[in-house]
Design a protein that fits this description.
The protein is of the alpha/beta class and 588 residues long. It has 22 helices and ten strands. The protein has a six-stranded mixed β-sheet with strand order 6-7-8-3-9-10, sandwiched between helices. The longest helix is centred in the first third of the chain and has 49 residues. The structure holds adenosine-5'-triphosphate (ATP). The site of adenosine-5'-triphosphate has 13 residues, from helix 14.
């Protein structure tokens, strides 16, 4: 049996939360407005009858004119109110759904997200959810409004003449069959539409964010090709849809409007054999053949409805992604332990196998290893961006899966190799949604060696960061990210050390900032340059999918070949720098 929760309209109403009341009120208004459709038809019928029977007076004309005007005005008022209420409810619902999805995404493992492209998620959050507005603000109230009128008129016609009223319904099953066929076709083709749109969005995101690279390698025409292919596919899909849906739409309109073809000969026959009066004949010849045209606006409904349901299904798909929930308090002690961990991103190739590591509370450890050996993966597992496939990771003796995810994030600061700045003020970029005062933010920025620079900006801490942080150099961005982590003051610090961003002066400032940041914390640093080892108590070598050596610099240097080699290389490089500079005191 189909679960009630699977019903897309019920789901939409649930997502609308408190705004559901506006949606229900809008449907009620649409219904009442629809009831008043009958006024104009009754007015015209009464006038026709009076004229044909020669009893028409000024009172009858005025009375029916008032009836038609007033019912039309009331109908419009209720339909207008229905529109206002449905839009208020619909945009409230859209807001709730978007918030639910973004909050949900924050608790989803990166593994689940890796399978989706950013364009795909953007399409759901933007275009697909926007389609829900169609359903809530238009489709549902319009369906009620445009169906109520014809139903009321049909009931009225039944009171006048049952056989003719029933004959007037003949086109209806045909048009509903057509609408059903269009709905079925649209539901089938929509996954291709969504895929093409998601691809289109991904290409745009890639094109804009990779603009520097595109320019540097003169890739304009090549990437434009990708761009134009995506546009072409979009165009192809929608052309195909119009080709397939145009004929049924035309048939829908023609069949609805051809009621006269039935009503005139059949009504005429009834009139000639004396079973109906002339006014009843005219009523059916005119109104009885036209009233179904009231549902003409519904021709778009099947396509819109299919799109809305597709939007619901895709939003539900994201909301169904498993999230980290439950779990207890963050432990008092912050020692970190990896026990025999196995991890693979794709389920096929193991990045880590039987990997173990212990970092004591308050200890600083540097992860050293060749590129691609799994250093960043280790810190992503400790931060629970992904879950291990075998083994366990413990903090303070507690498996991180048993720690409340938000508490884990609260107590861990991560400084990424590539600092990401949001399009907001410098102040907000440091306090990241928190409520720290400017004084506290400045104190953190001072420790991160970036306060002087921020104060030299035209608007100081209120300076807006340009898109993708483009106003700041790599080193400045790095120090802003360090200021963020200093302000957060979490007991565990994970640092994917950046070197590319730093020129020598910047590096001195970054090193000082990192030193301040690390003070009194349990720290894991991914050491891309060996110089970082000097600020740590221990070094651990990541190679062959595991940690092969761990200990003080001297201990690891004694036992590990890789470490001996890179240390030698590091020293030679320093000697070259020493010779080039001719300085007396380069620190060894
Ligand atoms: N999201 C991902 N999906 C699939 N594979 C990944 C992902 N991230 C990393 N990898 C792969 O996992 C392996 C380890 O990558 P990782 O980034 O942990 O190495 P690293 O030691 O930090 O490298 P580097 O020093 O160059 O930053 C690499 O082979 C990499 O290609």
């Amino acid at each position: 049996m189909k679960n009630k929760r699977d019903n897309p309209v019920a789901l939409l109403l649930k997502w609308a939360g408190r705004d559901k009341i506006y949606l229900i009120a809008s449907v009620a208004c649409a219904f009442i407005g629809g009831l008043f459709t009958i006024g104009a038809y009754i007015g015209i019928y009464q006038l026709m009858t009076a004229i044909l029977s020669g009893t028409c007076t000024i009172e009858i004309v005025t009375g029916n004119a008032i009836l038609i005007t007033v019912t039309t005005i009331i109908r419009q008022i209720f339909q207008g109110a229905s529109g206002v209420l449905s839009h208020k409810g619909a945009y409230g619902a859209l807001f709730h759904v978007r918030c639910m999805i973004t909050e949900h995404l924050a608790k989803v493992s990166l593994g689940a997200l890796d399978e989706r492209r950013s364009g795909d998620i953007k399409t759901v959050l933007n275009e697909d959810i926007e389609k829900l507005e169609l359903c809530l603000a238009h489709n549902i109230p319009e369906l009620v409004s445009f169906l109520t009128g014809p139903v009321v008129i049909f009931v009225y016609l039944m009171t006048v003449n049952v056989p003719l009223a029933l004959i007037s319904l003949v086109p209806l099953p045909v048009v509903f069959l057509i609408m059903g066929a269009v709905f079925k076709y649209m539901s089938g083709v929509l996954p291709r539409v969504s895929k093409s749109l998601a691809n289109f969005n991904s290409v745009i995101i890639e094109y804009i964010s990779g603009m520097k690279l595109i320019k540097a390698y003169n890739m304009g025409s090549k990437s434009f090709r990708k761009f134009s292919d995506a546009i072409e596919e979009e165009n192809k899909v929608w052309n195909q849809i119009s080709k397939r849906t145009a004929p049924p739409y035309a048939a829908f309109i023609i069949i609805l409007e051809c009621g006269m073809l039935l009503m005139v000969p059949i009504g005429g026959m009834f009139f000639l054999n004396g079973s109906i009066t002339s006014s009843i004949f005219l009523l059916f010849a005119y109104i009885g053949s036209l009233y179904l045209a009231e549902i003409l606006p519904l021709q778009q409904l099947s396509m819109d409805f299919a799109q809305s349901l597709n939007g619901v299904a895709k939003a539900k798909g994201i909301l169904n992604l498993p999230i980290y929930q439950g779990g207890g308090d963050f432990p008092k002690q912050c020692d970190i332990e990896m026990r025999n961990v196995r991890f693979s991103y794709d389920g096929k190739v193991n990045v880590l196998e039987n990997c173990s590591l212990h970092v004591s509370d308050g200890e600083k450890i540097a992860l050293v290893g060749a590129s691609g050996t799994g250093k960043s993966t280790i810190i992503e597992l400790i931060s629970r961006f992904y879950d291990v496939q075998e083994g366990e990771i413990l903090i303070g003796g507690k498996n991180i899966k048993d720690i409340n995810y938000e508490k884990l994030l609260e107590n861990t600061s991560i400084v990424f190799q590539k600092a990401f700045l949001t399009r907001d003020s410098v102040l907000e970029n440091i306090r990241m949604g928190g409520d720290a005062t400017l004084e506290k933010v400045r104190a953190a920025a001072k420790e991160a060696q970036i306060d002087d620079f921020i104060m030299s900006l035209p608007d100081g801490y209120d300076t807006k960061v340009g898109s993708f942080g483009s106003r700041f150099s790599g080193g400045e961005k790095q120090r802003l990210a360090i200021a963020r982590a200093i302000l957060k003051n979490a007991p565990i610090l994970i640092l994917d050390e950046a070197t590319s961003a730093a020129d020598p002066e910047n590096q001195v400032e970054i090193d000082k900032a990192i030193e301040n940041l690390c003070c009194g914390k349990t720290v894991i640093i991914v050491a891309h340059r060996l110089g970082a080892v000097k600020m740590c108590d221990k070094a651990a070598v990541v190679e062959n999918h595991t940690i092969t050596a761990c200990g003080s610099h001297a201990e690891v240097l004694k036992t590990n070949h890789y470490y001996q080699k890179v240390w030698k290389d590091y020293q030679s490089a320093r000697d070259v720098a020493y010779a080039l500079k001719g300085a007396e005191s380069i620190e060894r």
